[in-house]
Amino acid sequence: MAEYLIGKVCTPCQGGIPPLIREECEELRKETPKWDLTDDATWIRRSFAFEDFVGALDFVNKVGALAESEGHHPDISFGWGYVDISLQTHKIKGLHANDFILAAKIDQIAGA
Q: CA–CA separation, 46 vs 34, rounded Å?
């Protein structure tokens, strides 16, 4: 189902547009169901588990390379055995289709 989003490319957001409303977020989240939508519908978040620090670091590096190629950058925290990723389009202080596109592509890297 996420093929729709994976086939898209993040487009630069210059600001000045409204963030997606909750209903739009919920519709896009159907393609990224493992991501949690915050109560105020301004962020999506997901945690990933790994067997060790090296696995987590490798994943972070892959996500970083993807983010650079897409021109859309998540907030990432990681440590031994875990990676937490949060997405928001900072210029609009909320969610944009880019956030869900990147989430789908991150899921693809994770194999889930």
A: 7
Residue 90 corresponds to which tokens in the numbers above?
Answer: 């900072």
Residue 110: its pLDDT value, please?
A: 96
Q: Domain range spanning residue 96?
A: 3-10+18-110
Q: Residues of 52-88 as b/e, b for ≥16 C-beta within 10 angstroms? A: eeebbeebbeebeebbeebebebebebeeeebebbbb
pTM exceeds 0.85 for this model: yes
The secondary element (H helix, E strand) that includes residue 61 is: helix 53-70
- CATH number of the domain to which 80 belongs: 3.30.1360.20
- Determine the length of the chain: 112
The string of pLDDT tens digits covering residues 22-51 is 999 999 999 999 999 999 999 999 999 999
Q: Are 75 and 102 in contact (CB under 8 A)?
A: no
What are the residues facing 63 on neighbouring strands? none
